[in-house]
Specification:
With about 120 residues, the protein is an all-beta fold. It is built from no helices and eleven strands. About 0% of the residues lie in helices and about 60% in strands. It is elongated.
């Protein structure tokens, strides 16, 4: 089994910073995608940032404010968030495409979510 555990969500004032972490553990052969999504009540979950094949991609709304990074040795992905705005308030979810053996294909796993609240 594979588990993704997120941490780092908190209440912060507008203009502040937070760093989210997501650690993958369990039966892991390889990881070819790790990303962060966010969701607010009544809206669809949206991609915030992702890293795959050494390349990072960002939603337009967070470019130049958020930075995604990955530590391959620790199977961990980070999201450094700066210049936070009230509209960044959401539950942030980690996602990873993980292969558990040489003979199996990737499976998409999700973390439990971590709340980020930005006050004005």
């Amino acid at each position: 089994q594979v588990q993704l555990v997120e941490s780092g969500g908190d209440l912060v004032q507008a203009g502040g910073s937070l760093r989210l972490s997501c650690a993958a553990s369990g039966n892991i052969f390889s990881i070819n995608f790790m990303g962060w999504y966010r969701q607010v009540p009544g809206k669809q979950r949206e991609l915030v940032a992702a890293v795959a094949g050494g390349s990072a991609n960002y939603a337009d709304s967070v470019k130049d404010r958020f930075t995604i990074s990955r530590d391959g040795a620790k199977n961990t992905v980070y999201l450094q968030m700066s210049s936070l705005k009230p509209e960044d308030t959401a539950v942030y979810y980690c996602s990873a495409h993980i292969t558990s053996s040489y003979y199996s294909g990737p499976v998409n796993y999700w973390g439990q979510g971590t709340q980020v609240t930005v006050s004005s």
